[in-house]
């Protein structure tokens, strides 16, 4: 399944894997699980199996059929580095991203050590292709070790999603990071985000030269609290790391 996205920081989603399991408090009210479980047991529906892990080999060539360059969020409904995703299938996903090199692919994970190990082995310590952006999700200070794992990957296109931001992250070092996205939790059980937590990350971005994107305050619905932080809409984006041919196509 590939589709246009309502996520503010990407153009489209591509889900060669669906379903996942929880690895931390950021997963407690998972929007993807909530959506997928609505369809469990409905014959023929893509989420007939609910949020159980499933790989979709038939979706691997979808990006090749998209001729217009896009920012593509990979596995918005899963985590590519889930331990039950076969390594050979991860290889095929990376093969597809390398082949469709007119797109930028945004890969986001909470399983940061597994991503680091895979990517380091695949590229033998060399640099990750510039159209493949690698990121980690961090919900609070207890999970900032994921940032350390991300920094061990040889890529200029590292990004962090602080969403849902459930607590302060402390005086986090964001050097070597290109982009930070901050957002509150949304949904019927949304936990509130405090302004000082978001401002602390914004200040770290300013200090460390990182583009800052404030996605939402969250609430019962994603748009409930709006997008203003200190009266400003923050739409920072790391255009400097977009490969030149892709930048020219996206800008045209």
Descriptive key words:
8-stranded mixed sheet
In short:
This protein is α/β, with parallel strands linked by helices and 252 residues long. It has one domain (2-251).
Number of continuous helical runs: 7
Coarse shape: globular
Strands side by side in the biggest sheet: 1-2-5-6-7-8-9-10
Give a short account of the largest sheet. 8 strands, mixed
By helix and strand content, what is the structural category?
Answer: alpha/beta
Question: Overview of this structure, please?
Answer:
Helices cover 25% and strands 18% of the residues. The model has no long low-confidence stretch (mean pLDDT 94). It is globular and about 45 Å long. The protein has 252 residues and is α/β, with parallel strands linked by helices. The chain has one domain (2-251). The longest helix is centred in the C-terminal third of the chain and has 14 residues, at 195-208. The two termini are 27 Å apart.
Indicate the topology.
Layout: E1 2-4, E2 12-14, E3 17-18, H1 31-37, E4 54-55, H2 62-65, E5 71-74, H3 87-99, E6 104-109, H4 112-122, E7 132-137, H5 145-151, E8 158-162, E9 179-183, H6 195-208, E10 211-216, E11 228-229, E12 232-233, H7 244-251
Parallel strand pairs: 2-5, 5-6, 6-7, 7-8, 8-9, 9-10
Antiparallel strand pairs: 1-2, 3-4, 11-12
